[in-house]
Amino acid sequence: MPRPITATISVDALAHNLEVVRNHLHQAALAATTAQGQPLSPPSIWAVIKANAYGHGIEQAVRGFWQAQGLAMLDLNEAVRCREAGWGGPILMLEGFFEPSDVEVLDRYHLTTSVHYADQLAILAEGRRSRRLDIFMKLNSGMNRLGFAPDAYRAAYQQALRLRDDGVLNHVGKMTHFANADAPEGIASQMDVFNRVTEGLPGPVSVSNSAATLRYPTVALARDDHGAWVRPGICLYGGSPFADADAASFGLRPAMTLASRIIAVQQVRAGDAVGYGSLFRADGPMRIGVVACGYADGYPRHAGTGTPITVAGVRTRLLGRVSMDMLAVDLTPVPAAGVGAPVVLWGEGGPSVDEVAQAAETIGYELLCALAPRVPVHGRDN
Ligand SMILES: *Cc1c(COP(=O)(O)O)cnc(C)c1O
């Protein structure tokens, strides 16, 4: 029998979360239309599935996000896998392309690319292709990661429009990315830069990640018939982009459940220590469960004593230091649990991935993406 650890992906939860986001944007459009006296439409959704769909698997994501208008990612191989899985809709490459030969792949698989520095436009201007490419021109509105500087953007955009007029490009759009949509700083200063720099330039707009989509849905609405796109990622997997609001408060469901079993039980006495470094010491007699899950499975080593974990449906706590292949739990609240008892590390029926991440001083994103290749991933429809 293989080790009892598995990650189960609910395709239904992915689809449900997409619907939650769609409804949220729809409500925002209705409210804004009433308040502003002009019709505003909900944006289209690029479901972000980079990093193997945040650890959930590309094929699962294609099924779960079948109703999205587009998929966004950054690995060309993952884009090809989407096409092979039957996805015929738009695909946006968030980091653009990396070398001239990649443009052949964009062409062959009909991929939309972001363009974030001038050489990429020069590369697009060269070479023969079977069709006109769709692009989004990326503005660096303050994050200083990818994108044209504000004072270079309009000239680059005009150049892209000329390539469109010359029959090289098809749609040309405007995009930027927020550094603080999840934080008190918010998006105002970057939106000011974006609005000022892109004013009057034609084309669809794409600005919002999960945090901006959930917290500032109005900025994402389509204001003209060029349309608008949002780019939510984490919330579609049932994770929260916020430190101060959990995913359940938005009606989101965890799509990944990491589960295992108790493989040994130890009865310890007062003063006995548990695990490497003897970081946990028992105050009195207690039962300890040993779970087949460790940092080599992607469970964070920095999660310490007290991290929530569920055994046989009962919430209890992790004890001591996480080892490579195992971790220890307190069985005091589950006296009937023995070897074979089911354990949920995170997901449905267990703590949220964000709770575990918080205990390890990281974010749910990192834990989902870092699920180790040795953990078997099973998709299920419900
Ligand atoms: C990852 C990413 C997103 C999605 O971010 P979330 O916080 O997961 O919603 C959106 N846009 C870009 C450019 C990204 O790199």
From TrEMBL:
Residues annotated with N6-(pyridoxal phosphate)lysine modification: 50
Keyword Isomerase (UniProt): yes
Gene3D superfamilies in the record: Alanine racemase, Lyase, Ornithine Decarboxylase, Chain A, domain 1
GO cellular component: cytosol
Pathway(s) it belongs to: Amino-acid biosynthesis; D-alanine biosynthesis; D-alanine from L-alanine: step 1/1
A biological process from GO: D-alanine biosynthetic process
UniProt record similarity statement: Belongs to the alanine racemase family.
UniProt-recorded name of the protein: Alanine racemase
